[in-house]
Amino acid sequence: HFGNSADWGVHVLGTSGMVSYNVAAVNGGGYKNPTRSKGMDLEGRVSVEPVKGLTFAAGADTGKQGKDLEGTPAKRTTTRYDLLAAYKNKQFRVGAEYFWESDWGFTGSAQSDAGDGYSLFGDVVLSGPVSAFARWDHDKTSKKLHPAMEEDYFNGGLQWHAFAGIDVALVYKHDHIDNPASTGTVTKYDEFGVFSQVAF
Fold this sequence. Notes:
It is a single chain. Helices cover 0% and strands 63% of the residues. It contains no helices and eleven strands. The protein has strands spanning 9-16, 19-26, 41-51, 54-63, 78-88, 92-102, 114-127, 130-140, 150-163, 166-179, 185-198. An eleven-stranded antiparallel beta sheet has the order 1-2-3-4-5-6-7-8-9-10-11, with no helix packed on it. The radius of gyration is 19 Å and the shape is globular.
């Protein structure tokens, strides 16, 4: 969790030729947390599409994550940077993303930490409404406090576009966390499932 899918705030976005942008001042705690903070988090993203379907993007986020409250001020400011490259057409999509962060989730801590990670993802249309997809994430989310800890996450499956706005997918997920600092603990799980998505 190194970003919110949605948040309370003010957004300014637009497109000019091959360049698009989005700048926002948000609460920082996510849409599920309506509490008010003393300050706002700032987010920004700019992307360039030099040719149709090819996108390069960079983004940044800085703030207190909605934790700078009266009586319990935040001790640290979090920062995150993102880079993305992706290509898509009617038949397939491929992409890669990298992030670096500092003190994410450590706003109230006397300790400082940092992490980074990357993702590779893609999907391809197999036949008509059926497509295949996969994603692999690798991250080291505690490079200062637990530098040997790392995680690998993978998911892949088949998706069926059943009706307009309705997709059904057969998915396999695998997660592997190696944390030598915790007495050599290795945590992993595998999961199969059927998931659906309804867009409206």
